Amino acid sequence: MSEFSLIHTHFKHLTAPHQHTVLGIGDDCAISNIPPNNQLVSCVDTLVAGRHFVHETSPHAIAYKSVAVNLSDLASMGAMPYAILVGLSLPKSMANDDFCQAFAEGLAAACTPFGVELIGGDTTSSPILTISVTALGFVPHGQAITRQGACVGDVVCVSGTVGLASLALHGILDDLNGDGHANRPPESLPEKLRQAMQYPAPQVALGKRLIGFANSMIDISDGLGQDLGHILTASNVGAVIELDAIPSHALLDALPHAQKWQHQINGGDDYQLCLTMPSAKLDLFKTQNPDMPIYPIGQIVADKGLVFLHNKKEVDLLVKGWEHF
Question: Which annotated residues bind Mg(2+) 3 (predicted)?
């Protein structure tokens, strides 16, 4: 299959045209209009087979997650997703209709709920399956939520359950060989775990609703401890976290505390939001948005560092999130 045949057959008409697209797939570049009084927000993530997903992962799930992790980045700044560009590097054995059709359907499944358009990209042959997605979004001028705004006294919150994706990955990887192959296919996992690992839900609507409420925000991709640490460093503050307040699940609660906390603090891949806001604004947000629960798990303090408590006693936990190298 040629590059142009692959693009025309599987990707050119994959998503609905967006009102801000002037020119999409089919030329050297895409052309877009930026809405008045908005700023462009952009991000890129690259996923590599054997490093970011096990080789046994279905092409549908690979494509979906490649998009979802980028939409989660946009959500963490309160931005509304607009479009994506996809760089797809394929081994020749995968450059066929079966793989590309399932992959395209996974892209569409992630894009369609948010009205996101695929406006361009590139394809090439490669020894290793690699997907690089660039996502574009818009946020009202000057209202993006960054990592830098956490204030002493802010409540630290998360948007949902933390640790399930890590538990899922632990359940399928062979820790002894470290080659990115699974002991068993992801499809054999309990549905809740498989969904958490392969089909995370970007918190786009919540992120947008938090504009004017949250002082700082980040998405949980590399581990709650490490990602919250980015907020603390950028804001020059510290935090105290109540481990028992972190939203959990029965599958995690069944584990010994040390294992459960390892998944929650260092596991990553949750793509929930971690944010800080004044307690008065938290109360107001809950009143005005009863359909969007967020969960307080701690407080921003002046002393630098990250302190964990269990039953009001300090717990010594090493924060070591996902390492990209």
Answer: 28, 73, 219
121 assigned binding-site residue: yes
Residue 133: what residue type?
Answer: V
Q: What is the largest CA-CA distance in the chain?
A: 62
* Mean pLDDT rounded to a whole number for the chain: 91
What architecture (CATH level 2) is domain 3-140?
2-Layer Sandwich (3.30)
Q: Per-residue pLDDT for 325 more than 60?
A: no
How is domain 154-315 classified at the CATH fold level? Answer: Phosphoribosyl-aminoimidazole Synthetase; Chain A, domain 2 (3.90.650)
Q: Does 28 belong to an annotated binding site?
A: yes
Is 221 annotated to bind a ligand? Reply is yes
Share of the chain above pLDDT 70, in %: 91
73 among annotated binding-site residues:
yes
Tell whether residue 147 is among the known ligand binding residues: yes
Whole-structure pTM value? 0.92
CB-hemisphere CA count at 13 Å for 189?
26
154 annotated ligand-binding residue: no
- Is residue 14 very low, low, confident or very high in pLDDT (cuts 50, 70, 90)? confident
**Residue 270 marked as a ligand binder:** no
Say if residue 52 carries a ligand binding annotation: yes
List the domain boundaries for the chain: 3-140, 154-315
Tell whether 98 is in a known binding site.
Answer: no
Examine the pLDDT at 188 and tell me if it is beyond 80. Answer: no
